Amino acid sequence: MKALIVDDEARARRILEELLKEYCPQITEIAIAEDVPSAVKAINLHKPTLVFLDIEMPQYNGFQLFDFLSEANFATIFTTAYSEYAMQAFQVSAVDYLLKPIQVDLLIKAVEKAQKLLETSSPVQHIETLQANLKTNFITRLALPVTEGFAFIEVADIVCLKAEGAYTEVIMGKNHKHLVSKNLKSFEDMLNHPYFFRPHRSYIINLNKVKQYNKQDGGYLIMDSDDIISIAKEKKEEFMKVYQTPR
């Protein structure tokens, strides 16, 4: 792998370069850039497969690097994170980040993850997903880890999510679903939109995808996907309140 380190601090560049040389033998070439303009030149010249990108830099921040590129055909590992929401955005976009000071074990894992990402999916989609999520206070796109690699979906298109043990079935419509190796609680934490609701311990629903509410048999929902979902007794009052609230 060819790597590019982009950081405005000389000491940070030097430390990361030394760590990569000592602990990441799969990286055979390392180029250096001190800001976004020099990073653009280095990318065009060296064609890196992996870029370590600082975020807080003078003139242009790390995210703005992609505005100067027609296509980002490399994996990206951000080397700083400055808010809890930004870290969540990295996670749901399957884009890695390392907090400074960089820990060796996390660096090794991040490089291995980047290597695997390049083998299974397009880095461009991961960056586009990250950029979309950082534009708002809500997660709008997800990179779902599936058997073949990643499935990129719009959050608003999710009909419901169903617990399947340690896995979650993300249902997008009739005969259109993804089985993901994350439990339902992890999705509940990341889907911070007001139109997602958990009516039952085994389900999270998109209120905008409810086709019908039936009061019989304790109350149940028919979703756009034709999935039938019961409402837990203790959730019924809360459901009626949120269901009748304009979205």
Entry keywords:
5-stranded parallel sheet, Rossmann fold, 247 residues, 5-stranded antiparallel sheet, alpha/beta, elongated, OB fold (Dihydrolipoamide Acetyltransferase, E2P)
Q: How many β-strands, per DSSP?
A: 15
Radius of gyration: 21 Å
Number of domains: 2
Please, how many helices? 7
- pLDDT < 50 runs, ≥5 residues: none
The helix/strand order is: EHEHEEHEHHEEEEEHEEEEEH
Give the overall pLDDT as a whole number: 92
Instruction: Classify the beta-strand content into a percent band.
Output: 25-35%
Largest sheet, strands/sense/barrel: 5 strands, parallel
CATH superfamily of the largest domain: Response regulator
Here the CATH topology of the largest domain equals: Rossmann fold
Any guess at the CATH architecture of the largest domain?
Answer: 3-Layer(aba) Sandwich
Arrangement of strands in the largest sheet: 2-1-3-4-5
Shape: elongated
State the helical fraction: 25-40%
N- and C-termini, Cα separation: 47 Å
Q: So what's the CATH class of the largest domain? A: Alpha Beta
Derived structural class: alpha/beta
Structure in words:
- The protein is an alpha/beta fold and 247 residues long.
- It has 2 domains: 2-134, Rossmann fold (3-Layer(aba) Sandwich), CATH 3.40.50.2300; 158-243, OB fold (Dihydrolipoamide Acetyltransferase, E2P) (Beta Barrel).
- The chain has helices at residues 10-23, 36-46, 84-92, 104-120, 123-134, 184-190, 236-243, and strands at 2-6, 29-33, 50-53, 75-78, 96-97, 141-146, 149-154, 160-164, 167-173, 176-180, 196-200, 203-206, 210-214, 220-223, 228-230.
- It is elongated and about 65 Å long.
